[in-house]
C-alpha cells in the first residue's frame, strides 16, 4: 500500500466512525476521566490557536525540570484490511489519541510553561501544584509558528521555585506515512502475487532526534531526562512492545490495554513502542530476557537465528568490558520492513531495518553476518554510550555515535574472531572520515551549542564525522595512552555519569585520571581539544634525510590557509628498527626516529592508529615503493592500503605528483590482500568518475584489466568463481576481483557472469539459483550491464516476487547497472511509486543509478524535478551521491541554481560540501587530465 498517501482501498477498508474514534472508546474515557478527576479541573480556558513569534529562541528554558511522564496512547490501526468495517469517515484508522501527565520540579519562579509539540492537536490542559494539591488557572495556550515547536502555557499564578507540579494534556495526531515519529509500516505474508498473499500493517516509532514532540507534548531535549510510564491501547489481535517489559495487560470492549513497567530515567528520543503481529526468537543470556522479533514468516524460516546467536554474546562482552550490567530485565530487537535509519538504539527496544538484521540461509551472503554483528554491536554499545550516559546536546552527538562505532569493531572481533575483519572495518571508517574532513565545509566533532539549534541543523550532525572520526580519535587516544588505561578511564566515566548527561571535558577528565593513576603525564583535554574543537586533520611531512617533520591542515583546496595545530601521536617504523611513539605538538620539529640512511625507509602512522595523512621526501617514497615491489609483506597490510590512499589524496590536493600516486598501484599485480585492493579501487573510482566521459577512460580500463588479471585468475583457480574462500577477507577480495575484471572489460569475466545469470534466467526452475549468495550482487550487476531488456525485466520480476530481503536488495542494486538509458529512466520513475520502491529505499536506488555513467544525468534531472518527494528519505546522501561525478563549470552552475531555488532542509550542508567538491573536481581535472592520460597510455597493452 502507498505510504505517502493512503489509498482509497485503505481508506474504505479501514475507515471507522468519527464518533467512535473521538468519543466512544470506553477504555480511553475511563483512563482520561480518572486522570482528570484527581486534578479537580477548573473550567477550560479559551485557547488561542497558532501565534506568530519573532525569530525563535530554539532551546527550552531550564526553569522547569521534568521527572516523570504518565502516558496513554490509543492506536486505531488494524493489522490488515477489514472488509466488514462500516465506512463513514476516511482514514480514521490512521488516528491516534492520548493524554499525558508530566510531573516536574520548578527550579526558578515563572508564569509560563514551555514544552515541545508538533503536528498534534493539544487540548484540556490542567496544571496542578503537587505540594498543595491545588490547580493553577491557565490564561492561554499557544503554539509558536516557528522552528522552535514550542507549546507555551501561560498561567494566572506563578509556579514557585522549589515546588513540584504536574501538567495534564490531551492530544490527538495522525500516524505518519513518511517513517517519522509514530508511523505506518507494511509488509506481505504469503507468496507474492498469490491468493494467500495478504498485506499487513504495523505501527512503530522513530523519535530521534526531535520527533518525540510529534507523539506527545514533552520537554524534548536530551538533557531533560525523565521516567516514562506508558500504556498502549490497541487492537486485540496485535501485540505491543515497549522500552520496558509488560507490567500487565487486559481486554476492555475488544481493545487490549498493554501497560509497561516504568523506564529508567532517559531522554525523550529513546522512547519507543511497536504494535504488530510479529513473533520472537530468544537469545541466550544468564539474566536478561533477549528476543528478536520479525515477521512470522521470517521467524519461522529461521532468519532471526543468527542475530539471536550473537546478541547475547555481544551484550555479555559489553557488561564485562564496562563492568556495568545492562540495566533492564529485557532487551527486544525488532526487524522492521520500514525504517528511515539503519537501526535505532531505543533503550530495551532496538529497531532495525530488517535487511540488516535478518540472515536468510542460502540467500544472504556469508559476509552479511559481518554486517549483522557490526550493527547489533553498534546498537548494543548505545545502551551504555547514549542511553545510560547521554551527551548534553546534539552538538556533541559524537559522544554517542563515535563511541558506539569504536566499540562495535572491538565487539565484532570478540564474538566472531574467525572473521578477522576488524582492520578492514577500521580502514573503511578511516577513509570515509578523511575524505569528508578534507573539505573546508566540514565541521568539528564538538560544535558550540549555539550553532546547532534547529532540527535540520541537528540532523546534519549525524554524519561520517560524528560516527567515524569520533571513533577514530578515540582509537588514537587509546593507542597513545595504552588500551588498558583508556578502558579504565571509560569505566570510571560511565560509572560517574550513569543516568546523566556529559560533554567532552567530562570524558577527558576521567581518561586523564586513569593516565595519572598509571603514572602518566599526558594532558588529555589539551591534546584532544586539538582533535575535537577544530575541523579537519593534519598532513605531516617527513624529510628522512634531515629528520625534520612538520604539520599543516590537509585540504583538497590547497589555496586555503589554516593556522590549526594538532597534538599528534606518531607511531614510526623503519626497515632497520621496531616501532616507537613520537609526539609532534608544534608546527615543525627535528626528530631522530625520522632519519634514515641512503636506501632505507621510514614508515609513519604504523597500523593507521593516527587520524592524519603522511607525506615523505621523494627518496623515501621511492624506497617504500621499491619495498612494495620486492617484498610487500615488510609493510603492514593496513599501511599498504594507507600508502595508496595517502598518495592519491595528496595528489588531489596538489601536494604530490599524480604520477607517484598512480605508481603506488603497480605492485598490485601480485597482491592478494583485500585492504590494498579496496584502497586502490576506491581511489581509482574518483578517476573513473572524473574521466569516464573522456578519452582517458579507455587506457585506464586497459591498465586495470592488466592489474586485476592475476587476482581474477587466482580466485578462478581457487574457487572456479562459483564457490567462496574460507577467509572473510579473501571473500571480500573475490568480489573485488570479479567486479574490477568485468567492469573493465575482461571478456573471460563478462562471459562467466553472463553464463551464470543466463543459466538461472533460462532454467526450468528460476527459484533454483545456483549462483553463490556471496557473488550474486556482483554477478547480477555485471550480467544486467552486459544484457538488455530481457535481463532487466527478468531481474525486475524477481525483485517484485521475491520475499527474501537480501535477494531484493541485491536485485534492486543490479537493476541500476543496465546501460540502456530508457530502462534507467523507467527505473527512476518507479522510485515515485512506493508500491514498487519503498520510500526508505528511494535514496539508495537513485544513487545506484547515478553511479552508472549512463544514468548520471538522468538522476540529476530527476531529483531536481521531484525533490519534495525524494528528499523525504536522506536528502543529504542523495545530493552527495548524485553530484559525485560533477566536474564541469556547467554542472557547478546547475548545482548552485538548484541550491538557491530549492528548500534543502537538512540537505543544505551537503549541498555546500558538494559545491566545494565540484570546484575541487573542476580544477583537478583541468590540471591532471593530460598527465593521467599519458601515464595510462605508457603502461597499457592493447592485447590485454
From TrEMBL:
What does the UniProt cofactor note say?
Binds 1 zinc ion per subunit.
Class of enzymatic activity (EC top level): hydrolase
Membrane topology per the record? Single-pass type II membrane protein
User: What CDD domains does the record tag this protein with?
Assistant: M1_APN-Q_like (cd09601)
Tell me which cofactor or cofactors this protein depends on.
Zn(2+)
Similarity annotation: Belongs to the peptidase M1 family.
* Organism of origin: Hippocampus comes (Tiger tail seahorse)
**UniProt xrefs under InterPro entries:** Aminopeptidase_N-like_N, Aminopeptidase_N-like_N_sf, ERAP1-like_C_dom, M1_APN-typ, Peptidase_M1, Peptidase_M1_aminopeptidases, Peptidase_M1_dom, Peptidase_M4/M1_CTD_sf
- The segment(s) forming the Peptidase M1 membrane alanine aminopeptidase domain are 306-531
Its Enzyme Commission number(s) read 3.4.11.-
Q: Which residues form the ERAP1-like C-terminal domain?
A: 601-919
Q: Which GO terms describe its molecular function?
A: metalloaminopeptidase activity; peptide binding; zinc ion binding
Q: Which Pfam families does UniProt cross-reference here?
A: ERAP1_C, Peptidase_M1, Peptidase_M1_N
- In this chain, the site described as Transition state stabilizer is at 467
Entry protein name: Aminopeptidase
**Which locations, inside or outside the cell, does it occupy?**
Membrane
Amino acid at each position: 500500500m502507498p505510504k505517502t498517501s493512503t489509498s482509497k482501498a485503505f481508506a474504505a477498508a479501514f475507515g471507522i466512525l468519527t464518533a467512535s474514534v473521538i468519543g466512544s472508546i470506553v477504555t480511553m474515557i475511563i483512563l482520561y476521566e480518572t486522570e482528570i478527576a484527581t486534578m479537580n479541573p477548573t473550567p477550560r480556558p479559551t485557547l488561542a490557536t497558532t501565534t506568530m513569534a519573532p525569530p525563535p529562541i530554539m532551546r527550552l528554558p531550564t526553569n522547569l525540570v521534568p521527572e516523570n511522564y504518565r502516558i496513554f496512547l490509543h492506536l486505531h490501526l488494524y493489522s490488515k484490511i477489514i472488509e466488514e468495517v462500516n465506512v463513514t469517515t476516511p482514514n480514521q484508522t490512521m488516528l491516534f489519541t492520548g493524554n499525558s501527565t508530566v510531573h516536574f520540579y520548578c527550579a526558578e519562579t515563572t508564569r509560563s510553561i514551555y514544552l515541545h509539540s508538533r503536528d498534534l492537536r493539544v487540548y484540556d490542559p490542567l496544571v496542578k501544584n503537587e505540594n498543595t494539591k491545588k490547580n493553577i488557572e491557565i490564561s492561554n495556550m499557544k503554539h509558536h509558528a516557528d522552528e522552535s515547536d514550542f507549546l507555551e502555557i501561560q498561567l494566572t499564578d506563578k509556579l514557585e521555585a522549589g515546588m513540584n507540579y504536574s501538567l495534564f494534556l490531551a492530544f490527538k495526531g495522525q500516524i505518519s506515512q513518511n517513517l517519522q515519529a509514530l508511523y505506518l509500516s507494511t509488509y506481505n505474508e504469503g507468496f507474492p502475487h498469490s491468493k494467500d498473499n495478504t498485506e499487513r500493517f504495523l505501527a512503530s516509532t522513530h523519535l530521534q532526534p526531535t520527533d518525540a514532540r510529534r507523539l506527545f507534548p514533552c520537554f524534548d531535549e536530551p538533557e531533560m531526562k525523565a521516567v516514562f510510564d506508558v500504556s498502549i491501547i490497541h487492537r486485540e489481535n496485535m501485540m505491543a512492545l515497549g522500552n520496558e517489559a509488560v507490567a500487565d495487560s487486559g481486554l476492555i470492549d475488544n481493545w487490549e490495554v498493554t501497560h509497561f513497567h516504568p523506564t529508567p530515567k532517559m531522554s525523550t528520543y529513546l522512547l519507543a513502542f511497536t504494535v504488530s503481529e510479529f513473533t520472537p526468537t530468544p537469545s541466550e543470556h544468564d539474566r536478561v530476557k533477549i528476543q528478536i522479533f520479525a515477521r512470522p514468516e521470517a521467524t519461522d524460516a529461521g532468519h532471526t537465528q543468527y542475530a539471536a546467536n550473537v546478541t547475547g554474546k555481544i551484550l555479555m562482552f559489553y557488561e564485562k568490558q564496562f563492568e556495568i550490567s545492562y540495566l533492564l530485565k529485557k532487551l527486544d530487537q525488532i526487524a522492521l520492513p520500514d525504517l528511515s535509519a539503519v537501526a535505532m538504539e531505543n533503550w530495551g527496544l532496538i529497531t532495525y531495518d530488517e535487511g540488516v538484521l535478518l540472515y536468510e540461509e542460502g540467500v544472504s551472503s556469508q559476509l552479511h553476518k559481518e554486517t549483522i554483528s557490526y550493527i547489533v554491536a553498534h546498537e548494543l554499545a548505545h545502551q551504555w554510550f547514549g542511553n545510560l550516559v547521554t551527551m548534553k546536546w546534539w552538538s556533541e552527538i559524537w559522544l554517542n555515535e563515535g563511541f558506539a562505532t569504536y566499540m562495535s569493531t572491538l565487539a565484532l572481533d570478540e564474538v566472531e574472531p574467525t572473521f578477522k575483519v576488524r582492520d578492514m572495518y577500521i580502514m573503511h571508517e578511516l577513509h570515509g572520515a578523511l575524505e569528508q574532513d578534507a573539505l573546508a565545509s566540514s565541521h568539528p566533532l564538538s560544535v558550540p551549542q549555539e550553532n546547532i539549534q534547529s532540527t535540520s541543523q541537528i540532523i546534519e550532525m549525524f554524519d561520517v564525522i560524528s560516527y567515524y572520526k569520533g571513533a577514530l580519535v578515540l582509537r588514537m587516544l587509546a593507542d597513545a595512552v595504552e588500551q588498558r588505561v583508556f578502558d579504565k578511564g571509560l569505566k570510571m566515566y560511565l560509572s560517574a555519569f550513569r543516568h546523566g548527561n556529559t560533554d567532552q571535558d567530562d570524558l577527558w577528565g576521567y581518561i586523564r585520571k586513569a593516565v595519572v593513576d598509571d603514572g602518566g603525564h599526558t594532558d588529555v583535554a589539551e591534546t584532544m581539544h586539538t582533535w575535537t574543537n577544530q575541523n579537519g586533520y593534519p598532513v605531516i611531512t617527513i624529510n628522512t634525510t634531515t629528520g625534520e617533520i612538520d604539520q599543516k591542515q590537509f585540504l583538497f583546496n590547497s589555496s586555503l590557509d589554516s593556522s590549526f595545530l594538532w597534538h599528534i601521536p606518531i607511531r614510526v617504523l623503519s626497515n632497520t628498527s621496531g616501532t616507537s611513539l613520537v609526539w609532534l605538538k608544534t608546527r615543525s620539529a627535528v626528530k631522530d626516529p625520522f632519519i634514515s640512511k641512503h636506501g632505507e625507509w621510514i614508515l609513519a602512522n604504523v597500523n593507521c592508529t593516527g587520524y592524519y595523512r603522511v607525506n615523505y621526501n621523494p627518496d623515501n617514497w621511492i624506497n617504500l615503493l621499491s619495498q612494495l615491489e620486492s617484498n610487500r609483506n615488510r609493510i603492514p597490510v593496513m599501511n599498504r592500503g594507507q600508502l595508496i590512499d595517502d598518495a592519491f589524496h595528496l595528489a588531489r590536493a596538489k601536494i604530490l605528483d599524480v604520477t607517484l600516486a598512480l605508481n603506488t598501484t603497480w605492485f598490485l599485480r601480485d597482491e592478494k590482500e583485500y585492504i590494498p585492493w579496496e584502497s586502490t579501487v576506491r581511489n581509482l573510482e574518483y578517476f573513473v568518475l572524473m574521466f569516464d566521459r573522456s578519452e582517458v577512460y579507455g587506457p585506464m580500463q586497459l591498465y586495470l584489466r592488466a592489474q586485476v588479471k592475476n587476482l581474477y585468475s587466482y580466485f578462478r583457480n581457487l574457487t572456479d568463481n562459483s564457490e567462496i574462500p574460507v577467509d572473510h577477507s579473501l571473500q571480500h577480495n573475490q568480489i573485488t576481483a570479479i567486479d574490477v575484471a568485468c567492469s573493465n572489460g575482461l571478456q573471460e569475466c563478462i562471459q562467466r557472469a553472463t553464463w551464470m545469470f543466463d543459466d538461472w534466467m533460462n532454467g526450468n526452475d528460476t527459484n533454483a539459483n545456483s549462483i553463490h549468495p556471496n557473488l550474486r550482487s556482483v554477478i547480477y550487476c555485471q550480467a544486467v550491464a552486459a544484457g538488455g531488456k530481457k535481463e532487466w525485466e527478468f531481474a525486475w520480476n524477481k525483485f517484485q516476487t521475491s520475499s527474501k530481503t537480501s535477494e531484493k536488495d541485491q536485485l534492486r542494486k543490479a537493476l541500476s547497472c543496465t546501460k540502456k538509458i530508457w530502462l534507467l529512466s523507467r527505473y527512476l520513475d518507479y522510485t515515485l511509486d512506493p508500491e514498487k520502491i519503498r520510500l526508505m529505499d528511494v535514496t539508495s536506488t537513485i544513487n545506484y543509478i547515478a553511479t552508472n555513467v549512463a544514468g548520471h544525468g538522468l538522476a540529476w534531472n530527476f531529483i531536481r524535478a521531484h525533490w519534495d518527494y525524494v528528499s523525504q528519505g536522506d536528502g543529504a546522501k542523495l545530493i552527495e551521491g548524485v553530484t559525485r561525478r560533477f566536474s564541469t563549470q556547467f554542472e557547478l552552475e546547475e548545482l548552485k541554481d538548484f541550491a538557491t531555488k530549492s528548500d534543502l532542509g537538512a540537505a543544505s550542508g551537503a549541498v555546500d560540501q558538494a559545491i566545494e567538491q565540484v570546484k575541487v573536481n573542476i580544477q583537478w581535472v583541468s590540471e591532471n587530465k593530460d598527465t593521467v592520460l599519458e601515464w595510462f597510455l605508457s603502461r597499457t597493452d592493447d592485447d590485454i
